Amino acid sequence: MAQINKSSEYFNTKLYTGDGTSGRSITGVGFQPDWVWFKSRSATGNSALFDAVRGTTKLVSSAAADAETTDANSLTAFNSDGFTVGTSGYTNTNTTTMVAWNWKANGSGVSNTDGSITSTVSANTTSGFSIVSYTGNGTSGATVGHGLGANPAMIIFKNRIDSSSAKWAVYHKSIFVSQADPNILYLEATAATADDTNVLGNSTVTLNSTVFSLGDYNGSNGNTDGIIAYCFAEKKGFSKFGTYSGASTGVNGTFVYTGFKPAFVLIKSYDGAYGWVMNDNKRNPYNEAKNTLFANNSDAEDPTYNTCDLLSNGFKLRSSAGASAINSATNDQSLNYIYMAFAEEPLVGTNNIPATAR
Q1: Residues 60 and 68: beta-carbon distance below 8 Å
Q2: Which long-range contacts (CB under 8 A, 24 or more apart) does 43-48 make?
């Protein structure tokens, strides 16, 4: 598969200020998005995630285990260069600054019968991203087709129906050891990894280029419940899913090589009780990247902490552990971290044009 030279055709961040009006068109994304993740910046408010498979107006929040909500005034259309929003506080509160992270999949999806459970899959094999919708059967050993054509590096599961015992379960290739030691994380929580052996399989786990397996965990396989899964495969020069260890050396923290200039980085300590830190190149056009949001809470953007530098070939932590919860969430020498990163541009594209520093 050819390397992606123009990353903004597959992932892009859009900033805007809400005006509280209905039918507002937000343009400038650069493509028709299939997954949009909204978060208010200047005011508190839970995130809202929409995708083209579940359809417009149907949201789930990464900050809560709540079931899917239908909000007729939220995201009302996916457009060729962005999306349309209504008056909902999730997407268009008057005078509130907003961020929307956008991924391109492949529209509303098609039927996939690769697994024992038939799924609806919207897959972009070029960028390694798919949206997978299916109905759980509560049976360990069930399999679901994901459409990536490559092994998943990360999968984020959400039960759309059950809000009582179905957390956002997160599989990450860098910390998963085995079915007996799976090291699962939860997107709405600060907790370190848990050995929930029934997320991906109670006795065996299958993760390959066509399917992933399931256990009997409600969050990934609740019987008769609708489940949504966001699946990612690593693509050279565009996406990277890995780990690093904190350094706690003040502004001279750990450097993480990705092989591209990052446009977006999500970080979580997997052995410490800290949140999911989100940074991007649009809210932080210059180094250091100080404007921090958390996927797991409703806090407004915090502009006071030096989380990281976004460089031409990776990112470098610039925080000092102990100074704040944000700093310890990214660079404590006693902790280890996973990350998910997407590119602004590759370090050197197939067109031989090198990325430049900011």
Answers
A1: yes
A2: 43/93, 43/96, 43/300, 44/298, 44/299, 44/300, 45/89, 45/90, 45/93, 45/96, 45/298, 45/300, 46/90, 46/298, 47/295, 47/298, 48/74, 48/75, 48/88, 48/90, 48/91
283-288: long-range contacts, CB 8 A cutoff, minimum separation 24: 283/13, 283/15, 283/41, 283/99, 284/310, 285/358, 286/358, 287/311, 287/318, 287/358, 288/251, 288/318
> What local confidence, expressed as pLDDT, does residue 58 receive?
98
* 325: helix, strand or coil: helix
Q: What is the SS3 assignment for 328?
A: helix
Listed by start position, the domains of the chain span 7-103, 110-232, 240-346
Pair of tokens at residue 308: 């990281």
Q: Nearest-CA neighbor of 199 among 167, 232, 241? A: 167
Measured between its terminal Cα atoms, the distance across the chain in Å is 28
Closest residue by Cα to residue 282 from 39, 13, 16: 13
User: Are 211 and 145 a contacting pair, CB within 8 Å?
Assistant: yes
For residue range 159-216, what is the model confidence (pLDDT) as tens digits? Answer: 999 877 788 999 999 999 888 888 999 999 999 998 877 999 888 899 999 999 999 9
Tokens of 246: 């904190």
CA-to-CA distance for 294 and 100, rounded, in angstroms?
14
The verdict on whether omega for the bond into residue 288 sits within 30 degrees of 0, i.e. cis, is yes
CA 253 to chain centre: 24
Rounded to two decimals, what is the model's pTM?
0.96
